[in-house]
């Protein structure tokens, strides 16, 4: 595959041209670098005893934070296993919140609602019911409830997150201004501001299909969201993306393409790695590297911080900056470096290096990469990265990058 990039007028822009145009913003540093250097310089003038106290205090803080997070991770995995076991007994599957879908279950597990951000649909399902037992009003009210759910309510009603929180003592509470942000804003699917009116409008639309499985007595209602939802779900994060892309000297289109690929704009996205939020931040790796840039010191970012969309975008943008300006700075061509940055965001720099020299050393891979044209770098990554997931990821992000550039 050898994708081209189009400019706003629709003309093809070669990779070489693109290097000097839309990627030029990737070359400068961020203010946080200077802040970190100033902090280190200031610390060097402290008396030695005070300095040792500070170091010991910080190391203790790191130990405590890591222990707290490790306890939460273990509690999360245990809660996952327990809850997925309960779901499987009831439904015969283990469908639950992941990167691309947000899933709510009723207390008795007999009903579930799935907001599928990847396929722009809402699925409302009922288990152990007769085919005519569920009414139009039941479906409409359930959809209305979903439209009224905000991020904090979604967290509070998530059985796995709450079980892990209770077991570990780690509270998951986002900032007040973010807490009220709707998981599925009415404005993204209708011109009406009344959630019940929107629910009725959607249930009455032609994009609704119903199926019934008599053996399991399962009723499924699939509501296809309006075409404009795809645009609106991305649009609501554009302002934060533009702000943090500018702060970290990135092209906003790159950040948007990665959000699109990582989560399809699902603010509750998470995986069992664990990774959290829109840009699927892994606290132990990307989160730590980004925290050094943002706060000037290593810091374990907690789920409550990463479920905040603004925080998540800031952290993801900072990590992209770290990849582009530090870990991959030895790649001279900005377009070649862009492709490697995208791949590294998914799989790490060691696996990127392995695609070129069969060794997991970026330092040793620089010479080989710098001998290649950007198109050759792309082709090698797209065919020789160790994991198919990353090869597919690169293709998707590059394609979506073109979409958002336009």
From TrEMBL:
GO terms for biological process: peptidoglycan metabolic process. Keywords: Signal. One of its GO terms (molecular function) is peptidoglycan lytic transglycosylase activity. Residues 242-364 form the Transglycosylase SLT domain. PROSITE patterns: TRANSGLYCOSYLASE. GO terms for cellular component: membrane. Gene3D superfamilies: 1.10.530.10. InterPro entries: Lysozyme-like_dom_sf (IPR023346), Transglyc_AS (IPR000189), Transglycosylase_SLT_dom_1 (IPR008258). It comes from the Bacteria. Coiled coil: none annotated. Belongs to the transglycosylase Slt family. This is Membrane-bound lytic murein transglycosylase C.
């Amino acid at each position: 595959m050898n994708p081209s990039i189009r400019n706003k007028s629709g003309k093809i822009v070669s990779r070489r041209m693109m290097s000097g145009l839309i990627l030029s913003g990737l070359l400068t540093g961020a203010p946080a670098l200077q802040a970190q250097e100033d902090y280190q310089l200031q610390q060097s003038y402290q008396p030695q005893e005070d300095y040792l106290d500070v170091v010991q205090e910080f190391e203790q803080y790191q130990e405590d934070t890591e222990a707290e997070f490790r306890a939460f991770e273990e509690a999360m995995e245990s809660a996952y296993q327990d809850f997925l076991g309960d779901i499987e007994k009831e439904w015969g599957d283990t469908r639950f919140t992941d990167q691309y879908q947000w899933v709510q279950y009723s207390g008795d597990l007999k009903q579930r609602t799935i907001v599928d951000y990847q396929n722009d649909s809402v699925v409302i399902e009922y288990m152990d019911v007769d085919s005519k037992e569920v009414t139009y009003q039941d479906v409409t009210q359930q959809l209305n409830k979903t439209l009224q759910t905000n991020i904090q309510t979604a967290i509070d009603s998530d059985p796995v997150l709450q079980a892990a929180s209770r077991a570990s003592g780690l509270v998951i509470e986002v900032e007040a201004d973010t807490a009220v942000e709707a998981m599925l804003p009415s404005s993204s699917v209708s011109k009406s501001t009344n959630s019940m009116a929107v629910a009725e409008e959607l249930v009455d639309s032609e994009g609704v299909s119903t199926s019934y499985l008599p053996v399991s007595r399962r009723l499924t209602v699939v509501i296809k969201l309006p075409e404009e939802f795809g645009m609106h779900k991305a649009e609501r994060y554009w302002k934060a993306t533009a702000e943090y892309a500018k702060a970290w000297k990135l092209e906003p289109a790159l950040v948007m393409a990665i959000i699109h690929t990582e989560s399809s704009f699902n603010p509750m996205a998470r995986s069992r790695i664990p990774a959290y939020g829109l840009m699927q931040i892994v606290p132990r790796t990307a989160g730590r590297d980004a925290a050094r840039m943002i706060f000037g010191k290593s810091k374990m970012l907690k789920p409550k911080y990463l479920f905040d969309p603004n925080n998540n975008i800031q952290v993801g943008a900072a990590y992209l900056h770290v990849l582009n300006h530090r870990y991959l700075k030895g790649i001279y061509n900005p377009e070649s470096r862009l492709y490697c940055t995208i791949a590294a965001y998914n799989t790490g720099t060691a696996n990127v290096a392995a695609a070129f020299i069969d060794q997991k050393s970026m330092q040793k891979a620089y010479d080989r990469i710098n001998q290649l044209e950007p198109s050759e770098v792309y082709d090698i990554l797209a065919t020789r990265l160790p994991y198919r997931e990353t090869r597919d990821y690169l293709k998707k992000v590059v394609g979506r990058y073109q979409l958002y550039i336009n």
